[in-house]
Specification:
Blueprint (H helix, E strand, L loop, with lengths): L21 H11 L4 E5 L6 H14 L9 E7 L6 H20 L3 H10 L6 E5 L2 E6 L11 H16 L2 E7 L3 H5 L1 H15 L5 E5 L4 H9 L9 E5 L5 H14 L3 E2 L3 H9 L3 H17 L6 E2 L1 H43 L9 H4 L2
Parallel strand pairs: 1-6, 1-7, 2-5, 5-6, 8-9
Antiparallel strand pairs: 3-4
Helix pairs in contact: 1-2, 3-5, 5-7, 9-10, 10-11, 10-12, 11-12
């Protein structure tokens, strides 16, 4: 008997927990298999990264069908990067991981990487004849003004030499603008410079700040304007959610009242995060209920939703309110500091002039 926990994910949906998204998957497959790049637009937690990862897994398993010896990919999340240097290092490491996968696992691979990435002084951790890890060192010397452009260009050359395709997923891409807008835009220009001449490197850009992401790709003054295809990721169709629930119930030995599973789809409105959380909560309650274990009713669903709201949404709202309050306090402190350091040009009050 299969486990219901395999079908719903609180993280990146993959394997049995991934379903639907046929239109978006087709668009990504077409672009990534032809070295086109994509930016995924949508609200927070609608599964943008899940779609990208799923497509990359499918392509890597069927690389020969698309004319490649291999398709190597890597995902990097730069949301935790506090500085631009940290973001650069993380992206460079993703390039290194893809290069290592493309090159292979023998001495020729080492020679190939040294040839194409010579400027990066590549370091190898070697176990026997195999490469365990490849690290590309980030140079900060004046001789490397555009390290990301040079790394992507080298990756493209390596992929062409090996008959492979490289895909990089950059999650929370708007972080570059959040750290420092002008430096972030410089990195965008580096990426554009490499991509427009690339024939074997594709990139997927995703992020949770919809307005900032849109500006990066729709603003005519930005580097990546017109460079990437936009693929919209929205809520899942409620009918597909219900179909998935019935499949899970059947394969995992659950019974359900008429309309009970539809209630999950209706409440969550097909939002991937809410759907997964509510489904997990519902199936869990059904397993441990005293009467008729593994039997889902509308009452079970409603109880699960109340628990989800209490445990998840309230905490999320409170966190947002605290963040807003802290931001307001910082703004107030900054204003008071500015006032305190402002030199008075002229005393206008007779009361103060008498002091």
């Amino acid at each position: 008997m299969k486990k219901y926990t395999d079908y719903f994910s609180r993280k990146i949906a993959q394997g049995n927990s991934f379903f639907d998204r046929d239109e978006q998957r087709r668009a990504l497959i077409v672009e990534l298999s032809s070295s086109g790049s994509v930016w995924l637009s949508g609200e927070r937690r609608v599964g943008k990264t899940s779609v990208a990862v799923q497509v990359c897994r499918e392509l890597s398993l069927n690389a020969e069908q698309y004319g490649f010896t291999t398709l190597a990919w890597s995902k990097c999340d730069i949301s935790s990067c506090a500085t631009m240097e940290a973001a650069k290092r993380k992206i460079l490491q993703a390039v290194a991981d893809v290069a290592s996968d493309i090159a292979g696992r023998d001495q020729k691979a080492v020679e190939g990487i040294r040839q194409f990435f010579a400027r990066f002084d590549p370091e190898f951790a070697i176990g026997g004849k195999d490469i365990a890890k490849l690290t590309l060192k980030l140079r900060t010397s004046h001789s490397m003004d555009n390290p990301l452009r040079d790394a992507l260009t080298a990756l493209d050359a390596l992929a062409r030499d090996k008959g492979s395709q490289a895909v990089l997923i950059i999650d929370e891409f708007q972080t570059l603008s959040e750290i420092k807008a002008d430096e972030g835009e410089k990195i965008e220009w580096e990426i554009r410079s490499a991509l427009q001449d690339s024939s074997r490197v594709a990139m997927v850009f995703a992020g949770s700040k919809k307005r900032m992401m849109s500006d990066a790709f729709v603003n005519k003054n930005r580097a990546l304007y017109g460079q990437c295809r936009r693929v919209k990721i929205g809520n899942l169709p409620e009918s597909d959610c219900t179909r998935q629930l019935k499949k899970v119930a059947t394969e995992c030995g659950f019974e359900y009242d008429e309309g009970a599973l539809e209630r999950i789809s209706e409440i969550s409105k097909g939002h991937p995060r809410d759907f997964s959380h509510l489904s997990l909560q519902t199936f869990e309650l059904a397993v441990f209920q005293a009467k008729k274990p593994k039997h889902i009713t509308e009452h079970t669903v409603n109880a699960a939703w109340e628990a989800y709201i209490r445990d998840m949404v309230f905490d999320e709202v409170n966190a947002l309110l605290k963040e807003k309050l802290n931001n307001n306090k910082r703004a107030e402190v900054a204003t008071l500091q500015a006032i305190a350091h402002t030199r008075v040009a002229k005393i206008r009050s007779s009361w103060y002039s008498m002091k």
